[in-house]
Structure formats: C-alpha cells, structure tokens
Amino acid sequence: MSENKEIIFKVENLRTWFPITKGAFKKVVGHVKAVDNVSLEVYKGETLGIVGESGCGKSTFGKTLMMLEKATGGQVLFNYDGEFRDITKFNKDEMFEFRKKVQMVFQDPYSALNPQKKIYTSFEEPLIVHGMKDQAQREARMQEVLKMVNIQPDYLMRYPHEFSGGQRQRLCIARALEVMPEVLICDEPVSALDVSIQAQVLNLMKDIQKELNLTYLFIAHDLSVVQYMSDRIVVMYLGKIVEVADSRALYDEPLHPYTRALLSAIPVPDIHNTKKRQVLEGEVPSPIHKPSGCAFHNRCPHCMEICKQVDPELAVQNTENGHMVACHLYAQAQEKTQPEQAAEQTV
Amino acid sequence: MSEAKTMSIKEQNKGAATSLMKKNIRKFLRNKLAVFGLVVVALMTIACVVAFIGGIDFRTPDMANMRAAPNSAHMFGTDTIGRDLLARVLVGGCYSIFIGVFCAVASNVLGAVLGAIAGYFGGKIDALLVRLSELFQAFPQLVLVMMLVAMLKTRGLGNLLLIFVITGWMTTFRMVRNEFMSLKGETYVKVCEAFGMSKSNVMFKQILPNVMTPIIVSTTTNVAYFILQEASLSFIGLGVADSTPTWGNILNAAKNLQVVQNQWWIWVFPGLAISLFVLAINFLGDGLRDVLDAKQQ
Q1: Which of A257, A320, B74, B106 is the most buried (most CB within 10 A)?
Q2: How is A229-268 classified by DSSP, letter by letter?
Q3: What number is the average pLDDT over the span A271-278?
Q4: pLDDT digit string, tens, across residues B140-160
Q5: Strand ordering across the sheet containing A73-80
Q6: Is 80 exceeded by the pLDDT of residue A347?
Q7: Between vectors from CA A202 to CA A199 and to CA A208, what angle results, nearest 5°?
Q8: What CATH number does the domain containing B175 carry?
C-alpha cells in the first residue's frame, strides 16, 4: 500500500534523553529515556497516528521532530524536494527555514493564544517574522486560513478569552497553516475539547488535509480518535515503538500484547457484547530504570525467558502491508504464533 | 476589494481598542480613592513643575522676616534663614517627585530586564542573577550611600539616583523572574518558538506584556517608596546637597528641637506634602491594579 509513497520524514535511531542531575556539581546520575532509539518513516500526505499511554514519550517525540526538544542522538531526515537533510544538525538559519515546513498544533488551546493580544496580532506576528512585509498580503493570507477553519475574519479583532475551546483550537490550526507547512504535528489536538467539538475539529482537519495535501503526525491517547484519523498507526511504549501498522490492520489484527491490551480497553457501545477486557497488571516501569530485555516483559501475559534478557527488534511481520512489531513472540516460528493469535482474537 | 477589507479590519481594530480603553477608564473613575489619588498627584506635580519652570525664588533670604509664621506675604511662612517656604516646598517637590519617578522607572526597567533574562533562560544565568540580587538585598542601602559620599566627597543628586537604582531593582526582579518562569511554560510561548521567533522577541514581545500589569503597579508604588527614602536620607543629612531643596531637605531643619517646638510651619508643610503625595500615589497604584489586572476581567 505505502511502498511507492514518497517519504517526507525519515527518523533513524532517534533518542531524546533528559539527564537527571544530583548534588551541587550537577553530576549526571541517570537519564529519563523519553524517546529511545526510535526509527520511523513518515510518508507524504498520510496521517500517522502515534498512540501510547501517558509518559510513553509520544509528545516528546513530536517535539523532537520539531527540534523543540534537543535530540540526544540519531538522525531526523527531512525531505527537501527529494534531498534528505538531517535537521538535528541544522544551524539557526536553516532551522528558521525549516519552521516553515513543519508546524505544530498543541494540546491546550486555552493557553496557546497569548491572552494579552488580539487574534489579529497573534496571527500577524509569525507572518512578519517570516518576512511578509506587506500588510495587505498578510491580511489576505490571514483571511485565507481563517476561511479554511470556518471562522469569520472580523473575529480577528477579538481577544482569546472571547472564544470557546473549539474555536480556539481551530484558530491554532489556522495559525499553524499560515506559513504553509508541509507537515503538521498535532500533539493531542482534541483531548482538551468536548467530545461533540472533537468530531467537528477532526472533520475539519481531515478536510484541510485533503485540500492542502498535508502530512499529519497525529499524537493522541484516544484510540478511537486515532483510528478515525490515521492511515497508519505507531504504538509506543516507554519511549520505544512496539508496533507499526496500517490503521485497519492494527485494529483487525493487533500483534503486540501491549497493543491488544490497549485495544481491548476501547469501550464498545453494545450491551450484548460481553467482551473480556485484558487488564494489564502493574504499573508502567520508570523510564529511568527500564527493565532489561523487552520493556514490556513485566506486564506481558506471554512473557518468556528470552523477553527478560533480549530487547526485541522492530521487524516486519507482514510484508504485504508493512505491519511491523517488536516482540519475541513473532520472532520465532510463524506457525507457533498463529494459533495463539487466533485464540486471542476470539476473546 | 482586498484594499477595502484591509481598511475595514484596521478601522474595527481601532474601534475595539478604544472601547476597551473606555471600559477601563470608566472602571477607574468608579474607584473614588483612585481618582482622588490621581487628582492629588496630578495637581501637586503640575504645581511643582510650574513653579520650577516659572523660576520661583526659593533662594533669597528675607532678612526682615526670619522664622515668620504663615502670613499674606509668605503663605507657608519662612524658614530659619528667612527663605520663603512655599517656594521651597514647590521646588523641593519638583526634585522629590523627579527622584521618585526616575528611580522607580529606572529600577523597574532594570529589574524587569534582568528578571526576564533570569526567568526565561533559567539555569546558570538565573542562579547568578538571583545570587546577585540577594547580595544587593543583604547590603544596607545607608552604608552604600555613605560609602559613595565618602568616595566622591560630594553629596549630589546623581549619587542618590545611582544608589537608589542599584539598590532598588531586586523586588521587581524577583517578581518578574517568577512570572517569567511560570509563563514560559505556557503553550503560546512554545507556539512562538515553533514559528522560529527569536528569543528576545519571545521574551519582550510575547511574555513581557503579560507581566506589564504588576510592573506598572509596582512602579507607581515604588515612586512613593523612593520619595520616602530620599526624605529620610536627606533628613539625616545624607541625601541631596543642602543647596538643592527637596522635601526631605526642608524637613532637615526640623532636626532642631527649638524649631520643632516653636516654628511648626517649617516641618508641617513639607511633612504634609510628603504624606499627601505618598498617600495619593498609593491610592493611584491600588486603583491601577484593580483596572489592569486581566484576571479580574
């Protein structure tokens, strides 16, 4: 499905570690491994969903792709019209230009607009910074993006507190679109909104994507939202990717035990469906002291001896749709895992 | 077409701005004490400035009328060497108010800039600046003034201004630093960084407007604080040189018990001027706080 698509982001062994210091001399005693050896490809025009529970590093991953957090290691290659350049090594000017290519929509629309400034000013500033000197031109662009999010241009005169959450998030999306980015990183864009407004914003985002041929990186913890939005989904656990699959494939046929547990947590509005929830035992281990071997082994219902020692590699499981999983269950003979998987499905 | 729309947006922009301003002014006018403060501050300032510019004679002693009680020729009476007290209070007010306003503005600007830098960058710069502010706070102002006077061998206006500014920025610094530390975590700051805005732009154009209210309020109240500081320093004879009248300098004459007991007008009028002005400034500051605080709107 996605083989002949153009790659826009190529992430290789990306690490974002935060040092933990101790004592008067700030001795580094450890690291919070928020993003740990993540490799990933993002295709042009797709929506890549990133899911995982709180603290698994999905937001940090998004911020690292924008270089709002410094990467500790690895590469992030961005496609400049066919030429891949490593954004982690960009200098100030190159970074500034890169800002026009990739923009971000943040989680909290209530603090994303400067409360002291009119929307007009908040919208004008990025354009001025990026060298749009002519005021008429700026206003034309502002009206253009506002039209995309269905907000009247005369609302520009208002202050942020005069808007509802949904309107504010739409304004934030519009502002991000002002510089005509190719990629929009959406960091839980609807989790702060009412469910009724969520659908409205999500549909709007889909429409905009179609219109502008945008690439979305959609970070969320709400699985139904991600399923609705995404073409492909990445499941993260403790800073690592455990599974990558097409949206349909992931929901029909989840491979990793963690993904299965996540999916079983989606409520189904059907009283006859007495599905058994697969409840995970224990807590997420600390990202400072990760368990040896597979990070998930202490909560995994299928834990084997090898899981405690060897960290599984992310490997392609299904060459047809590019389904990838990092689990020892699938590294072994295919036939051994199939029945087990079937048993899991019936539950 | 687009030109017409541009015009309309700009026009409306102006309209909205003035309406907000009007709303704030109305709110301010409803506060009786604040209006009283504003009126008193304005009247006293105007009177002092007019007298100063008009070249009122505050130097020439009236030898025939030394220590004269208030009368038709000298409304506030005359001081121990026969100088007209009204003229001295007016001209002295000019100096006092200038000292208060200049020091308040300068120390607040210094404090705000350093606070912005410390709060926004954090880390080592922050630690350094905080230690520096603690150092200044721990150092007695009086000793600094005496040191400077001893070193420069003159008692001048400049010394006083310098000392007040370098010993007065810490409160604002701490306030602005704390505000910056909490505001830099706000999403709109991240948005601006994501747009690639420069650090100074983010600091001074994005975050600082949100800290302006407490800065303005603290500047107003600091004016009163510095006027009092100057008065007390001049009273004990460490302030401005004797030739320059300030409210504190005039009061200096009241160090003499003879004067306190027999010539009440020499200390009542400058004392009254100080108290009234400081009180009015404080009312004004409170009123401004009520109007400008966005959280209450």
Answers
A1: A257
A2: H-SEEEEEETTEEEEEEEHHHHHHS--SHHHHHHHHTS--
A3: 72
A4: 877 887 787 778 777 778 888
A5: A27-43, A7-22, A73-80, A83-86
A6: no
A7: 140
A8: 1.10.3720.10
In this complex, do B194 and A139 lie within 8 Å of one another by their Cβ atoms? no
So what's the pLDDT on residue B1?
40
Instruction: Please provide residue B238's backbone torsions phi and psi, each rounded to the nearest 5 degrees.
Output: -110, 0
Has residue B178 been placed in a domain? yes
Asked whether residue A246 carries a pLDDT value surpassing 70, the answer given is yes
Asked if residue A1 has pLDDT above 50, the reply is no
SS3 content of chain B, % helix, strand, coil (to 5): 80, 0, 20
- What is the domain count for chain B? 1
pTM: 0.82
Domain that holds residue B108: 88-296
Residue B14 has pLDDT above 80, yes or no: no
CA distance linking residue A261 with residue A247, whole number of Å? 16
CB of B296 less than 8 A from some CB of A: no
Would you state the structure tokens that stand for residue B206, as one six-digit string?
Answer: 């994005």
Q: Identify whether B51 is part of a domain.
A: no
- Segment A118-144 shows an average pLDDT of 90
Query: Which helix (DSSP H) or strand (DSSP E) does residue A15 occupy?
Result: strand A7-22
Rounded to a whole number, what is the distance in Å from the CA of B196 to chain A's nearest CA? 5
CB B187 to CB A111 under 8 A?
yes
Structural domain contains residue B80: no
pLDDT tens column, A36-64:
888 989 999 999 999 988 888 888 999 99
For residue B83, is it within any domain? no
Mutation site, A25, A91, A116, interface B, largest B CB count within 10 A: A116
Q: Report the distance separating Cα A162 and Cα A113, nearest Å.
A: 11
- In chain A, which among 70-109 make CB contacts under 8 A with chain B? 95-96, 99-100, 103-104, 106-108
- Cβ pair A125:B192 closer than 8 A: yes
Tell me the three state secondary structure of residue A22.
strand
Residue A271 confidence (pLDDT): 76
Task: Report the phi/psi class of residue B163: left, alpha or beta, with left for phi > 0 and alpha for psi in -120 to 50.
Answer: alpha
